[in-house]
Amino acid sequence: MIYYNRFGTKRDLTVSEGDRVEIIKRSDIYCINEEEPIYHSGTITKIDYEDLNRAPEKEAVGIWVKFDKDNVFNDGEEDLVALAEIEELFKKKYDIVGYAMVNEGVTLSITGEGLGKIINFDYQDGSLLPVSIQDANGVEKGTITQADEELIQELKRYGTPQKYFHYVLSQSK
Question: What spatial distance separates the first Cα and last Cα of the chain, rounded to whole Å?
Answer without folding.
Answer: 50
